[in-house]
Specification:
By secondary structure, this protein is of the alpha/beta class. The strands form 3 sheets. Strands 3, 4, 5, 6, 7, 14 and 15 form a 7-stranded mixed beta sheet that branches. Strands 10-9-8-11-12-13 form a 6-stranded parallel beta sheet, sandwiched between helices. The protein has a two-stranded antiparallel ribbon with strand order 1-2. β8, α4 and β9 form a beta-alpha-beta unit. The chain is globular, with a radius of gyration of 20 Å. The two termini are 25 Å apart.
Length: 338
């Protein structure tokens, strides 16, 4: 008889936050190239909300259980690990998965595991994988960031942008701009994280403000999670040969009539979308290595921080989702498994 474990499920497969509950499901078993990790903490991401509502394209290899980032202890490991990995039973790790992190145990490829630094808590480690790897991918692989380039992070107080602002500052961006929905969030991005300036999209025309702040030049790289409502503004503020990285569409995907795409040719712009979760293990493994090499040393020393809004017991998973839906947070929401 298969072993069982506790995991978060959704009543009727999709629904509101109140449809989340803890149930029992079969415990996973490892493959030759994976490990079983006993989870201590997991991070929430906006894709979790969309998946819960049936609005996210889940990869075919993902289990039905929500959650892509976690920290924990290896309970068992396969014998065919990649070169230089050599994870063993008892190792403290954190990592990224296609799904399944809202559970007591997870089966995950060793390509996407990292050793948890002793300087980090379980909660901090669980808040790194999805957000910091997404920021790294958006900045460097897609946006082609280099020192002295300027960058605009929309949703400045989101977890990905918090990581990205720190990466941008650490790699000597010429200017770092953010948009956010409150002065409190803007002050946090500027005074705490080191952004050059921030603009409140509720009270300001952020596109005009960015152009004014750059003397009409615009910015070299734009990282956007909003979609429809920001599409025209992004074209307007992108500098010549600029890169617009599209990671989400919180405002929708269908553009209104009258959108002017002339800037694509006039300014030689490149617009590229991406989803980390749909990438294969080899690609994700390369991103893991980039994170370990470029960001993790700074995080360990405290030069870059994992900002956590709130730690919530996983028994209150519905409350955790409602908190994320409120859009009032700065940083990660982490759930712990006691």
């Amino acid at each position: 008889m298969a072993e069982i474990m506790r995991a978060v499920a959704i009543h009727n497969s999709t629904g509101p936050a109140t449809s989340l509950y803890i149930t029992q499901i079969p415990k996973p078993t490892p493959s030759p190239t994976s490990a079983i990790v006993k989870i201590r903490a997991f991070g929430l991401n906006r894709m979790d909300l969309l998946q819960r509502e049936g609005k996210y394209p889940v990869p075919p290899q993902a289990p039905s259980t929500l959650g892509v980032e976690f920290s924990g202890v290896i309970e068992s490991a396969g014998g065919q690990q990649g070169e230089g990995e050599e994870f063993k039973v008892g190792d403290e790790v954190f990592g990224l998965a296609y799904g399944g992190a809202y559970a007591e145990y997870i089966n995950v490829s060793t390509h996407m595991l990292m050793r948890k630094p002793r300087e980090l808590s379980w909660e901090e480690a669980a808040g790194i994988p999805e957000t910091w790897i997404t920021a790294t991918q958006a900045m460097y692989l897609i946006g082609e960031f280099a020192p002295e380039k300027s960058i605009l992070w929309h949703a400045g107080a989101s977890s990905v942008s918090i990581a990205g602002i720190q990466l941008s500052k650490g790699d000597n961006a010429s200017a770092i701009f953010v948009t956010a929905g409150s002065q409190e969030k803007i002050d946090f991005c500027v005074n705490e994280l080191g952004a050059t300036a921030g603009f409140n999209y509720h009270t300001q025309d952020w596109a005009k403000e960015v152009l004014a702040a750059t003397d009409g030049k615009g910015v070299d790289i734009i990282i956007d999670f909003v979609g429809q409502n920001y599409f025209q503004g992004n074209l307007d503020v992108a500098a010549r040969d600029g890169r617009i990285v599209h990671l989400g569409a919180m405002s929708g995907t269908k553009l209104p009539a009258g959108v002017d795409i002339g800037a694509f040719v006039r300014k030689r712009l490149r617009f590229e979308g991406s989803s980390l979760r749909s990438r294969d293990e080899v690609y994700q493994g390369k991103l893991r290595n980039t994170l370990v090499e470029h960001a993790l040393p700074f995080i360990r020393k405290g030069d870059m921080k994992v900002y956590i809004e709130q730690v919530i017991p996983w028994e209150k998973i519905a409350e955790a989702h409602e908190l994320m839906e409120s859009n009032m947070t700065k940083g990660k929401i982490i759930c712990t498994i006691g």
